[in-house]
Amino acid sequence: MLNATCHCGAVRIEIPARPAEVTNCNCSLCRRLGTLWAYFDAHTVKIHGHPENTDEYIQGDKTLRTVRCKTCGCTTHWEPLDPLKYRRMGVNIRNFEPEVIGDVRILLLDGADTWKSSFWEDLDVA
Hints:
Layout: E1 2-5, E2 12-15, E3 21-25, H1 30-33, E4 37-41, E5 46-48, E6 54-58, E7 64-69, E8 75-80, E9 88-92, H2 98-101, E10 105-109, E11 117-119
């Protein structure tokens, strides 16, 4: 298991392994949060301090809640509102120390318009 916390330590996160890739989404919420999402089956992730130390935000199609620490405000994860229908959850990998995650590939998701994605290294950014 790999471990992380929010800034103040009230919420602790355990994931089963280093993700192969993370997603940088530019939808109206994610671009404001500045998150990088790693996706896991919800039963493989442990969130300590949730729900007693967290607040949630539900928006849009009301299929998931975005969760943050109510003390320091760090976004920790999102989880489905119906865990029987949706088993996947997203963990904000920015809460982990950079050396724990290493040079994981970043998938850029255009959640604002097209819902198409590409890997950072595939873009011509020169």
